[in-house]
Design goal:
The chain has 196 residues and is mostly helical. The protein has helices spanning 8-26, 34-51, 58-85, 94-119, 126-142, 148-165, 171-194. It has one domain (8-194).
């Protein structure tokens, strides 16, 4: 005896599920770099070692600005490579545009607040400001990406809150934990689950 044929609605549900998953993926910004995040984390750990604790010096801020420039370059290159591999565009398409529009405002706020903190004698509290606002950028931009990205943003935000409550001398270690450890940990997860 041959097995009973599968009902038509079972096939239809499979097809609808496939279409729904494909549409969800098409609405996500998937070029968030996993291995690029790992590399960014490594540079942040090096910056923490070089900078030492926040000491109200221009040298301290310069070390972290230099690391931010290097990390941005790494992220840009890694995102470009990942987008090419998946045959998607970084510059066109709604997912990339939505990600960028949600990611940018908290970073702009950080750029505005950095000189304010510096001139007001609050340089030692910049780690909390930077971690909190970068986390906000990742969480809001990550709303248009894969699920793990906004979770990473929330972890950065939590670490920023801890940095505001912790002794100022711990600032460089908290920066290493966030920009180093969180980038590396989540970078590995993104690379393994979502490619590169």
């Amino acid at each position: 005896m041959s097995p009973a044929p599968e009902p038509l609605h079972a096939h239809a549900l499979d097809h609808l599920s496939y279409i729904r998953d494909a549409m969800a993926r098409a609405g996500e910004f998937t070029a968030v770099p996993g291995w690029g995040g790992v590399a960014m984390g490594a540079t942040a750990i090096a910056a923490a070692v070089v900078s030492g604790p926040p000491d109200e010096s221009l040298r301290w801020v310069t070390v972290w600005f230099a690391d931010a420039v290097i990390a941005t370059a790494i992220a840009f290159v890694a995102m470009t490579i990942k987008a090419r591999r998946s045959d998607t565009s970084l510059w066109s398409g709604a997912p990339a545009r939505r990600f960028a529009l949600a990611f940018a405002p908290p970073l702009v706020a950080g750029m505005v607040l950095t000189p304010v903190f510096t001139t007001m004698g609050l340089m030692a509290r910049l780690p909390g400001c930077w971690l909190l606002l970068y986390g906000t950028a990742v969480a809001t931009g990550g709303a248009f990406s894969v699920r793990v990205v906004p979770v990473m943003g929330l972890c950065f935000m939590a670490l920023g809150i801890v940095a505001f409550a912790a002794p100022a001398a711990w600032g460089h270690w908290l920066m290493a934990a966030g920009f180093g450890g969180l980038h590396m940990g989540f970078g590995f997860i993104i690379a393994r689950r979502y490619g590169g």
